[in-house]
Amino acid sequence: MYEPNVVGDWQEYDEHAGLRVRVHRLEPAEPPRGRDDAAEGLTYFSVRVTVENRGARHFGIHLEDGQIDVRIGPDGESAFLDWRNSQFIEGFDVHPLRRATAVLYAAGAEASLGQVDVQVQLRVDEEWADRRLWSGGLGLHEGAAAAPGCAGRDGGLAHQVSAFLRDQAEEGTA
């Protein structure tokens, strides 16, 4: 298994030259068609999965129901996935220098959203690519208090990820 990526990182696929995937824009968001009754009392959030083709040929990609798994909290409990509001990539040809993005709406207990893991298994030209994992969290803003479950400034994975990204931005890395 590969090391997990930080939400926002690109992950390239060796078996498909030029193809890369990124999980990004993990943020609180209300679903566009209204809340699902099964998510009563839960906090909604959205996450985007973008597939980019930097190669020389087009790829037929699928990123559908069941190919994205979202886990929350320190115990990795499954988040509620709102399939009705989510937008997937279903049999799309991504040509060179083009992108396609899926938008997933999920919900979970607010106290568990400081740690969110998203696992993606892309299907490319009818072949399954390796699974990849991204880690991040909600509610982490510069200068904000530690996320629930974090013991101070250096506690918790999501807070550490946020601090790392903030440090990288201050150094001016691209």
How would you describe what is shown here?
This protein is mainly beta. The protein is 9% helix and 41% strand. The protein has one helix and 14 strands, in the order ββββββββββββββα. The protein has one helix spanning 157-171, and strands at residues 5-6, 10-12, 19-28, 43-53, 59-63, 68-72, 77-78, 80-81, 89-94, 98-108, 116-120, 123-124, 127-128, 132-136. Strand 6 (68-72) and strand 7 (77-78) form a beta hairpin. It is globular, with a radius of gyration of 16 Å. 30% of the residues are buried.
Core attributes:
174 residues, mainly beta, five-stranded mixed beta sheet, 14 strands, 9% helix
Outline the secondary-structure elements.
Layout: E1 5-6, E2 10-12, E3 19-28, E4 43-53, E5 59-63, E6 68-72, E7 77-78, E8 80-81, E9 89-94, E10 98-108, E11 116-120, E12 123-124, E13 127-128, E14 132-136, H1 157-171
Parallel strand pairs: 1-14
Antiparallel strand pairs: 2-3, 3-4, 4-10, 5-9, 5-12, 6-7, 6-11, 8-10, 11-14, 12-13
Offer a concise description of the structure.
By secondary structure, the chain is mainly beta. It has one helix at 157-171, and strands spanning 5-6, 10-12, 19-28, 43-53, 59-63, 68-72, 77-78, 80-81, 89-94, 98-108, 116-120, 123-124, 127-128, 132-136.
Question: What gap, in angstroms, lies between the N and C termini?
Answer: 27 Å
Query: Biggest sheet, strands in spatial order?
Result: 1-14-11-6-7
DSSP strand tally: 14
Strand content: 35-45%
Q: Major beta sheet, specifics? A: 5 strands, mixed
Q: Specify Rg, calculated over alpha carbons.
A: 16 Å
Order of helices and strands: EEEEEEEEEEEEEEH
Q: Give the overall form.
A: globular
Give the proportion of residues in helices: under 10%
Low-confidence regions: 141-154
Mean pLDDT: 86
- Helix/strand/pairing class, anyone? mainly beta
Q: How many helical elements?
A: 1
